[in-house]
Amino acid sequence: MDSYDIRGGERLSGEVTVSGAKNAVLPILAASVMIPGETVLDNCPDLADVHNMCEILRHLGCEIHWEGHHRLRVDASGVKGCSVPRKLMKRLRSSVFLAGPLLARCHQAVLSAPGGCAIGSRPIDLHFLGLSALGASVTEREGRLFCRGTRLRGTPIHLTYPSVGATENIIMAASMAEGETLLQNAAKEPEIVDLQNFLNACGAEVSGAGTEEIRIRGVKRLHPARYAVMGDRIEGGTYLMAAAITGGDVTVRGLNPAWLSSELSVLARMGCRIETDEGTVPDGGDGWIRLSAPPELSAAGFVKAEPWPGFSTDLQSPLMALCTVAKGTTVIEEAVFENRFQCAQELKSLGADISVEGQRATVTGRANLHGGRVAAADLRGGAALAIAALEIPGETIIENICHMDRGYGKFDIVLKELGANIERRETHGRKTSGETTGISKE
Ligand code: EPZ
């Protein structure tokens, strides 16, 4: 497995434009299965998870072509299969997003448990409760889920938890059901608004995304569209925290600052100067955020990682890394996943002062971090280790960075352009920096 070799202490400065959002493009790609004809996605990120999703769509009969690095053409006219092999399901969490679209298009779906970061049990009960409410029958045999639904019918559905994935799966299935679905206690993340906008561009009738009540009027068919995926707010927040830990001054472009309002208020509390511009494009495509860090960061106090519009759980680990060198004590509560403090142990091996009790981590700064050899256990935990390493003048090696390739395209290239001393190495030590995620192009 590849690793990053980081020699920190360099102040990051300059500008970076985020890629398209991983957590927006994955449900949108799943939704394309419902659409006969060629859908064109602009601002599509070059990520391992995207390539894995493309492999699933190809297996189902879609034709997929990349135009350059960020435009994807998906022709789902030839969708014939409705079964996703276990090995493909296991590669990513978003494979479960195929349930709704396959039921809508083929009236059946055969899946198994999805993969994804080991940050908790991550059940999928809410997905299938919603699909069953729409009239699908779901039976499990030998670890395979057999879903059938010849005529899905709209209905009121109340989610017991605002699950992002379940919200997206239900929206997709309901978009071609008969009648109207009222989804209550829906997740409100910006990526769900992007899915709504994509589906409506294809002729769906979805409204209310971004609020806890989403209304979906089923239509008989959807038509292809060309759509630009929203910017990745989590990638943007990660680079802002990398700038903050190095005392840097970085502008992140291609996203709407409102998508990071909770996170920006925490960074301001820590002493960072934040300037923003919403941009002119309604979906935030040309908005920007500039962060100028103080000579010494102050602790963040109490931060709770929770569903939107709270502080994003996907930036909880990067924030933990940042707080290790902030003056004072920060208490971080993780209210979304039950096992998302895995990077704490690795940060402690670099000299951080962190104590974890249940869903709370207490971080005391300012620690004098030192270099070492650590391993990423999940996508955002890997980013946290890289952020900490950027502050350490000595050498830090981060192993298992394949986790990071799932959600950060060209992480090392971006950080190097901002002034970091970072090299990507293959397991046997050969330098491979300067390449993209190393995934072969289709
Ligand atoms: C999405 O995961 C994101 N992934 C995650 O990003 C993100 O952390 C998460 O939403 C929360 O914002 C993608 O969009 C591909 P959930 P998802 O369903 O859909 C429980 C990253 O780092 N739950 O909102 O899996 C579940 O156990 C990734 O980019 C059920 O109990 O999140 C968890 O505790 C990580 N039953 C909580 O809800 C269900 O049926 C949140 O899960 C579904 C979820």
Features:
442 residues, alpha+beta, UDP-n-acetylglucosamine1-carboxyvinyl-transferase, Chain, four-stranded mixed beta sheet, 23 strands, 28% helix, 25% strand, disordered C terminus, binds ligand EPZ
Provide a concise account of the structure shown:
The protein is an alpha+beta fold and 442 residues long.
Please tell me about this protein's structure.
The protein has 442 residues and is of the alpha+beta class. The protein folds into 2 domains: 3-19 and 231-432, Alpha-beta prism (UDP-n-acetylglucosamine1-carboxyvinyl-transferase, Chain), CATH 3.65.10; 22-228, Alpha-beta prism (UDP-n-acetylglucosamine1-carboxyvinyl-transferase, Chain). The chain contains 14 helices and 23 strands. Strand 4 and strand 5 form a beta hairpin. The radius of gyration is 21 Å and the shape is globular. Bound molecules: ligand EPZ.
